[in-house]
Amino acid sequence: MNSNIYSRIPKVDQIIENEKIKSMLEINSRELVIESIREELDDIRKIISKGDITLEDLDNRINKIYDNVTLRVQNTMSPKFKRVINCTGVVIHTNLGRSLINEEVMKYVSNIATKYSNLEFDLETGARGSRYSHLEDIIKKITGAEAALVVNNNAAAVVLVLSALAKEKEVVVSRGELVEIGGSFRIPDVMEQSGAKLVDVGTTNKTHIWDYERAIGEETAALLKVHTSNYRILGFTSSISLDELVELGKKKEVAVIEDLGSGVLIDLSKYGLEYEPTVQDSINSGVDVVTFSGDKLLGGPQAGIIVGKKKYIDMMKKHPLNRALRIDKFTIATLEGTLRFYLDEDKAIENIPTLRMLTTSINDIEIKANKLLHQIKNCIKDKLDIQVVDEFSQVGGGSLPLEKIPTKCIMISSDHISVTSLERKLRENEIPIITRLYKDRLYMDLRTIDETEFEIIIDGIKSALQNI
Ligand SMILES: *Cc1c(COP(=O)(O)O)cnc(C)c1O
């Protein structure tokens, strides 16, 4: 009986004679198609060996071989890393790629990446140059720092700074600043990696200047201030300002380092957001070294930017770790292109997607929301209950944790279909549409949706509804 069943499965030689498979063979390698056929046949044999399939179901499954093989081949050939539509309203969404890069900047990057470039070539002397020189001048100009260096990300920047300045020495940090920043970036662990010895002072909610002062001794290399980017301790609290720390560092002749995290270069309180200390503020206070991310509030590529006194930056440039953490030409070009906008604040707000989304007025968002609402209503009739509601967007990326920016969302509910299934179908769309589900309602925040994406969203909803 069993061996009889197996004989219903066509042979590879027969399968490749099928028209659908033949057309697959025309555009794909023979190995890939044959491999996909074998996988499909293996699956069928597994189903048979479990013994719970009727002959009729088995024949149906066998009839699907050609379509399934085609799907397998297409799936193998299609990129797994792809563009999505962010309807969550979280602007710096770490899971969805953090900062978006301006398209003009990407054209410039494309030209650099697809052609030869002066990456490490000095066009004046014709001799070897430094890859960092392209960025250093513009970072100095924008931040007012004496020197600058860029590495792979901010976590790497902190490791490099501590390794270069404080290996086997002590670094004093407030207990209130021993933070974990998503993933596995924990300040105490990072310090251990760098070989610096952590001396934590004060308590979770209060640290005084004399806490730092008492901790400074022969072995102290630096005082470290960590910007608690992703949380706030509220209530009975006090921490030391950077100014006070800089004054103490000068008096005791130890370096003062600040891990700013987000790295804002524009005072965003002018645009109605909560005040977040800028890199320029830190430099003005006289701090020795500041580190910050390239792809958080700065709105550029993943990078860790280190600015500060030349004496210290030079130590990092020469440090062997710097070679391991070095950035590639894509990062240099993308960061340079993004930073160029900062030479004119209005241009930065207008052209850097992260800043533009964060500062879009509620009026503009409402106009967009109503437009999308009408377009969706036009094509779905009465299946869904859909309206525009007041909601809050988040900055994300562990930046401005308490900031809730008023926004407008499309809210979808339904008595006919499961909104949970709708969320899943949208997520499985060819261009995935990522929405927020809350209490059986689906939300789409117009702050992070561009009008050019409306068509994709409407088509996505239409095809989702056909398949629910
Ligand atoms: C985000 C953050 C980091 C890590 O930065 P990455 O660029 O993501 O590596 C480190 N320190 C602080 C304070 C941060 O907010």
What does it look like?
This protein is an alpha/beta fold and 468 residues long. It folds into three domains: 3-77, no CATH class; 85-93 and 358-466, Alpha-Beta Complex (Aspartate Aminotransferase, domain 1), CATH 3.90.1150.180; 103-349, Aspartate Aminotransferase, domain 2 (3-Layer(aba) Sandwich), CATH 3.40.640.10. Helix content is 45%, strand content 17%. It has 21 helices and 16 strands. The strands form four sheets. A seven-stranded mixed beta sheet has the order 3-11-10-9-8-4-7, with helices on both faces. It has a five-stranded mixed beta sheet with strand order 2-12-13-16-15. A two-stranded parallel sheet has the order 1-14. The chain is globular. The mean pLDDT is 93. Bound molecules: pyridoxal-5'-phosphate (PLP). Residues 153-155, 181, 185, 226-227, 229, 259, 261-262, 293, 304, 398 line the site of pyridoxal-5'-phosphate.
- CATH homology superfamily name of the largest domain: Type I PLP-dependent aspartate aminotransferase-like (Major domain)
What is the correct CATH architecture of the largest domain? Answer: 3-Layer(aba) Sandwich
Small-molecule binders here are: pyridoxal-5'-phosphate
Taking all Cα atoms into account, the compactness measure Rg is 28 Å
Q: What's the CATH class label of the largest domain? A: Alpha Beta
Number of domains: 3
Number of strands: 16
Q: Could you give the order of strands across the largest sheet?
A: 3-11-10-9-8-4-7
- Total helix count? 21
What would the average pLDDT be, to the nearest integer?
93
- The CATH topology of the largest domain, please? Aspartate Aminotransferase, domain 2
The percent range for helix content is 40-55%
The profile of the biggest β sheet is: 7 strands, mixed
Q: What is the terminal separation in angstroms? A: 39 Å
Keywords: Cytoplasm, Protein biosynthesis, Pyridoxal phosphate, Selenium, Transferase
Catalytic activity: L-seryl-tRNA(Sec) + selenophosphate + H(+) = L-selenocysteinyl-tRNA(Sec) + phosphate
Subcellular location: Cytoplasm
GO biological process, one term: selenocysteine incorporation
